[in-house]
Structures are given as C-alpha cells and as structure tokens.
Amino acid sequence: MSITSNEFMLNGKTIKNRFVFLPCVPFSIKEDGNDYYGSNHIAHYKEVAEGGAGIVYVQGTSVLGVSAGSALWTPGSQEALKKIVSLIHSNDALAFIQLSWGGDAETDINALTTSEVEQKQKDILDAAIIAGSLGFDGLEFHLAHTFLLCKLLDAEANKRTDHFGGGLTDRASIVTELIPEIKAKNGQDFILSLRMGAYLPDLETGIKTARYLEESGIDILNITFSMVQPLDAPDGFPLSDMVYGGWLIKQAVGIPVIGVGEITNQSKAETLLENGYADFVGVGRGILADPALPNKIMAGEPVSECKGCKDCQWFVDHLKCPARIALSFGKS
Predict the structure, then answer these.
(1) How far apart are CA 294 and CA 49, in angstroms?
(2) CA of 19: how far to CAs of 80, 100, 143, 224, 310, in Å?
(3) Which CATH number fits domain 8-304: 3.90.1150.10, 3.30.210.10, 3.40.1360.10, 3.20.20.70?
(4) Which residue, of 63, 103, 277, 329, is most buried by count of CB atoms within 10 Å of its CB?
(5) What is the pTM of this model?
(6) Is the pLDDT of residue 103 over 90?
(7) Pick the residue with more confidence: 79 or 3?
(8) How far apart are CA 31 and CA 91, in angstroms?
(9) b/e per residue, 284-302, with b = 16+ CB within 10 A?
(10) 80-101 pLDDT per residue, tens
C-alpha cells in the first residue's frame, strides 16, 4: 500500500489517511486559569491537526469530576475542547478523545467496592455522551498501561468476585455495557476505539479479549502494552515489539488495528502498511518532535525524527525535545 493512497472508511466516516496522532499528554502544558483545557491546548492541537494526521486523539482525559462539571470537565474546559474539535475538523481530520479512569493508578482494583466501580462506569458514560455533544467523532477507552481499567481487563490482575471480575465478559463489562447507550446517544456512526495490550496477561487471552470487544461493538483497536510489556518480536521482524503484538491481534479480528511503537519515519510507516502489520500508523512522540510528520512523510520530505532520548523531554517540556529544537533551526 502506498503511503499516499491510504483513505479509509469507518462507520461511514472518511479518514483521509492512515496516520493517527496518539493520545499523548504534553506535560509542559498546564492549567489555563481555573480550567485545564484552554488556549495552550488549543494551540497545541491546532499545530498537530495542521500536520496532517487523519485521526487526532485528544490526550487521556480522566472522567473524574464529569458529573459535577469539575476537574477536567469545567464549562471552560468543555468550551476549549469544542474549539479543538473544530480546529481538527477544519483540517479534514477526525477528532477522538481518550477517556481514562483517573485517580491513583496504584489503587488496588480488587479493594474497590462494587458501588465505587459502578460510579466510575457512570462517569465514563457521562463523559462519552458529553464528548459526542462537543462534536467528537469518536472516543477511546483507555484499558492499557497498567492503569485501573487495564487492571480490570487483565485476567491475572483482576481478582474481583462481583460482576466486574471473573470471566472475560465480566472483566470487560465496565465498558461493553455502555456501548449500546453511547451509540444510541451519539449516533451509530460514532466511533469507539479501545486501547489495550496484546497480552492479558498472555496472547491467547489477548486474542479472546480482542474478539469479544469486536463482537461487543468496539470499532477500532489501539494495541500497545497492558500489565506486562510486549513479548520480544522474532528475529527479523522489522518493527517494534508493540507493532508485532498489534499484528498478532490484527490477524484475529476483522476491525481495524492501530500499530504503535517507535514509528518515526517514512520507512517504518511504509513497512507497517505495506506488510499489513496494522491498518493505521500510530505516532505519538514522533509528532511531538515534528508536528508536520504525516504531511512530510506523504510528500516524501525529511522529518526531524524523534531521537529516542533516554530522558524524553515529553515528560518535562516537549518544546525542549532535541528533534524539535533542531527543526526550529532547519536541521534534522
């Protein structure tokens, strides 16, 4: 598949290309007055959207406080999110928001009461409906990276004895039970993405989980890591271990899969698509390093490539990224 001939249809929506800006929190952007989302986030996502990705994910957004209109869901933040959606749409891209549990990632998922988990489930539903009202084309449930929703999904981490624990259908129920109502409120074309690892905790369970999520109405899978890091790809596999895990999941499902992990240049993006390892090229830090990466790759132009620094400035101030600094001086 040519990197420049890559339009995709999903739920009746046209995705202009196969590049996805992954949900990355730019830690250098802080609150805007009394609101979390504000002018700085608007400028950030404007720059990203202008860079050419077909789907732009707004960063992981905790559902904490959604029912009260507080935390990340104040009226001011919601107005800023609406502006971000408009900017993404003005660049002919789809706008998704990633929803996360929020709170303390070190919390023991097995110690929470049933009512506490049910309240969080309601918060996720409320946030999903608000996302639709703000104009988002879809959302992503964040069930990866060892956070609480990831712990619920993982067969080894989840030892609950209520209806949120036990078999696969129960472990996934915190989101699968919401799918019909989200689709009813936001429209059947509203796209539901889910981020998960390929190993839950093993590949067999990961594949079963992916298939069940597809049957339950998830439209697209974003494959990364869960409670455990991805297994080593076999010798000779040309891309990252996470891409390999995503490819194993892709072969087991019929819905599209986003491949992620160290895809920072044209060669890697083409390798992923041409070999069918995934349906979409997921890029996070590569776009933080060079926001125009999708447009440049499709035009065959050099990018200011993420250098894979040991101490990634993304966690401190993405504007200090060496690749981004080199970009500002016309170097790569």
Answers:
(1) 10
(2) 24, 23, 22, 16, 25
(3) 3.20.20.70
(4) 63
(5) 0.95
(6) no
(7) 79
(8) 26
(9) bbbbbbbbbbbbbbbeeee
(10) 999 999 999 999 999 999 999 9
